[in-house]
Structure formats: C-alpha cells, structure tokens
Amino acid sequence: MTFGKNLKAARNAAKISRNEFAKHIKRSVHTIKSWELDRHRPDDMTIGKIEDFFYLERGYLSSPTALSHAKLIGSLSCAINKLPNPKRQHAIALIENITHLIN
C-alpha cells in the first residue's frame, strides 16, 4: 500500500480525526489530506515523528503490509471496546504485558 493509505489507516485505527492529528503534529488539515491522498509526502524526519506519534516502528508507514496491520489493530480495538469493563481492563493488561515482552 502507499504511504498515504497507510497513514490514513493508522489515523483511523487510532480513532483520530484529521483535525486532531493536524493539531498534534502542527500541520494543516489540508496538508494531512494531501498526504493521505498521496499528492504529497512529508520529509523523512516528519514521517519519523508521525510513526512515533502512532507508536509505529520506523518504516512502517512506507511498508506495503502496513494497511493490513492497521486494520487488524482497528478490529482488535473495536472488539476490546465492546467487552464489559472488567474483561476490557484484563485484555488491555494482557496486551501491555505482551508489548513489554516484545520490547
């Protein structure tokens, strides 16, 4: 997939609007839209900051498999949010523990 599609998928998986994202990275909504539509591409330093913002590994947004990962994360997030609170907290704790093991 393209950088723009991967960026949009990551933003949607994080449930952040273009407006919110633009404020966080200090860019205009128009700029974000042009990136997501692959009209323009940010410089490498900005791409790194975006990947950090979404807690993605470096190079992820340029990866052809990134979109499928973002969809998977989005599906997992939706499933967790549908759980009753005690189970939701338990699922979040499990994911945090797995993340610590990986890192």
TrEMBL record:
InterPro entries assigned: Cro/C1-type_HTH, Lambda_DNA-bd_dom_sf
Domain HTH cro/C1-type: 7-61
Molecular function terms from GO: DNA binding
SUPFAM superfamilies: lambda repressor-like DNA-binding domains
UniProt-recorded name of the protein: HTH cro/C1-type domain-containing protein
Organism: Marinomonas spartinae
Biological classification of the source: Bacteria, Pseudomonadati, Pseudomonadota, Gammaproteobacteria, Oceanospirillales
